[in-house]
Amino acid sequence: MLAKRIIPCLDVKDGRVVKGVNFVDLIDVGNPVNSARAYYEAGCDELVFLDITATSDNRSTMVDVVAHVASQVFIPFTVGGGIRSVADMQAMLKAGADKVAINSSAVYNPQLITECAKKFGNQCVVVAIDGKRQSDGTWHVYVSGGRKDTDLDLIEWVKEVTSLGAGELLITSMDKDGTKSGFDLELYQAVSEVTQLPIIASGGVGNISDFIDIFKKTSVTGALAASVFHYGEIEIASLKERLMQAGVEVRQ
């Protein structure tokens, strides 16, 4: 069994780390380079860096910031936001990212997943999916930083991106984002039933018990959080110790 991964997320807007609730009301919480270095030194397993307005503002991810962040950490590092082509992904990998996440561009051009996988290998291609529960109990895929409902069924989209060559999934529950009310366990259980890809769960962490629940009750391999790490509410060393006590295998 693969060791579970603890993954801080750096949501970046205009060169600063920000955090909001349900994808809005963003608050400045720090410098991305300093934050990345601090998390690396604290013992996180991976980092995710998302330029959250790159797509909606029609601009590219800041390559120089990515390069600076990558120079400070020596663990797997995923970059996303505004990646629209094979060339964009190549620029991120060249700047120092280990993996690149695509979201809106994959929805509009699904073949981009296959093209990037063939060029760089499946392991480099992370498909990020922002999902929101509908009144009928299903989940829809949202794009453009959670601003637009695509009407795509999330479970069907997971099946498609799996077949197209994605190497990993980063799935965020928009309903849970920033609420600290726990992961949407039902969502990740449903996703796990239709794909064998590694899944990173995102959205809703409020305490250590939420991490224990997601790892014990679903098959996700990574848990991503922002607020509880940014504000020092959970220390990574303490989290890993508690997870091990609960019988969850984590990286040392």
Automatic annotation (TrEMBL):
Subcellular location: Cytoplasm
Keyword presence, Metal-binding: no
Keyword field contains Cytoplasm: yes
GO molecular function: lyase activity
Pathway: Amino-acid biosynthesis; L-histidine biosynthesis; L-histidine from 5-phospho-alpha-D-ribose 1-diphosphate: step 5/9
Top enzyme class: lyase
Catalytic machinery residues: D11, D130
InterPro entries: Aldolase_TIM, His_biosynth, HisF, IGPS_HisA/HisF, RibuloseP-bd_barrel
EC number in record: 4.3.2.10
Catalytic reaction equation(s): 5-[(5-phospho-1-deoxy-D-ribulos-1-ylimino)methylamino]-1-(5-phospho-beta-D-ribosyl)imidazole-4-carboxamide + L-glutamine = D-erythro-1-(imidazol-4-yl)glycerol 3-phosphate + 5-amino-1-(5-phospho-beta-D-ribosyl)imidazole-4-carboxamide + L-glutamate + H(+)
Keywords on record: Amino-acid biosynthesis, Cytoplasm, Histidine biosynthesis, Lyase
Family: Belongs to the HisA/HisF family.
Job description of the protein: IGPS catalyzes the conversion of PRFAR and glutamine to IGP, AICAR and glutamate. The HisF subunit catalyzes the cyclization activity that produces IGP and AICAR from PRFAR using the ammonia provided by the HisH subunit.
Subunit structure: Heterodimer of HisH and HisF.
Protein's recorded name: Imidazole glycerol phosphate synthase subunit HisF
Organism of provenance: Streptococcus sciuri
